[in-house]
From TrEMBL:
The gene is cobB. This is NAD-dependent protein deacetylase. The keyword Zinc applies. Its cofactor is Zn(2+). It catalyses: N(6)-acetyl-L-lysyl-[protein] + NAD(+) + H2O = 2''-O-acetyl-ADP-D-ribose + nicotinamide + L-lysyl-[protein]. The keyword tRNA processing does not apply. Nicotinamide binds at F34, I104, D105. It is an enzyme of class 2 (transferase). Its EC number is 2.3.1.286.
Length: 245
């Protein structure tokens, strides 16, 4: 595949790689993204996912929010794919400093990555909006309708909904990693969701790698564009076999 050899060389030479990714990193694990042809936008719903996953919608129609959320945002029995495993391997080898992700599925940690900055939170964490009590995923999967805490308050996922702000500490750490990175690998994101997509403006190096199966708005700015499936690309670059999944 074109570009693979150059990416291998840059990875070999660096101990300061940062990865920034999105929903496309998990499609090979069976979790749909939003904007691919087979993504959630192209399936039939009364509203687009961004409307349902907005703060306004959550407040106005919580039952519908939870119906969509349970069906589409929580994936059961999913496993990390070769992209997640390759990134965890690069971190273990002391080459990769951090994974910055827009994903909420927890698959980077499941693959063994330790420094994972979850810009949009995680479906694995949930909390009571009244008393603050923490709940795991079971509170959502094991309930129906709007999940309720023992205190009577509503349980909300620790996921950043559209219209909600990002955690400032996570954002600042991401800026720090990206601005100091030698190689920045961006993959599986349409780069259309802000402020997350704006983070890449902090990169100052000359090894900006973009791995995506479709064209993105950043293609012209990248130093290396690899068109393909990210699991296949990173799997090949890092020597992760299909069987290791
Ligand atoms: P997106 O759906 O807007 O874009 C996904 C991008 O990844 C597209 O450009 C698509 O072409 C590409 N892609 C899909 N599969 C790929 C593959 N195997 N290899 C390489 N590229 C691939 O996703 P986004 O930019 O992350 O923004 C959507 C928002 O919704 C984000 O906040 C995201 O985290 C969230 N979301 C998360 C999940 C998850 O946690 N797994 C799933 C859906 C949406």
């Amino acid at each position: 595949m074109e570009g693979i050899e150059l990416l291998k060389k840059w990875i070999d030479e660096s101990d300061n790689i940062v990865f920034f990714g999105g929903a496309g990193v998990s499609t090979e694990s069976g979790i749909p993204d939003f904007r691919s042809v087979d993504g959630l936008y192209n399936q039939q719903y009364d509203y687009p996912p961004e409307t349902i996953l907005s703060h306004t919608f959550y407040m106005r129609k919580p039952e519908e929010f939870y119906r969509f959320y349970r069906n589409k945002m929580i994936a059961k029995d999913v496993k990390p794919n070769r992209a997640h495993l390759a990134l965890a391997k690069l971190e273990a080898e002391g080459k990769l400093r951090a994974v910055i992700t827009q994903n909420i599925d927890g698959l980077h940690q499941a693959a063994g990555s330790r420094e994972v900055l979850e810009l949009h939170g995680s479906v694995l964490r949930n909390y009571c909006t009244r008393c603050g009590r923490f709940y795991g995923l079971d509170a959502i999967t094991g309930s129906e309708g709007v999940p309720v805490c023992s205190c009577g308050g509503t349980i909300k996922p620790d996921v950043v909904l559209y219209e909600e702000g990002l955690d400032q500490e996570t954002l600042q750490k991401s800026v720090d990693y990206i601005s100091r990175a030698d190689v920045l690998i961006i993959g599986g994101t349409s780069l259309t969701v802000y402020p997350a997509a704006g983070l890449i403006d902090y990169y100052r190096g000359r090894k900006l790698v973009l791995i995506n199966k479709d064209v993105t708005p950043l293609d012209k700015r990248a130093d290396l564009v690899i068109t393909g499936k990210i699991g296949e690309v990173l799997g090949e670059v890092c020597g992760i076999n299909q069987e290791e999944k």
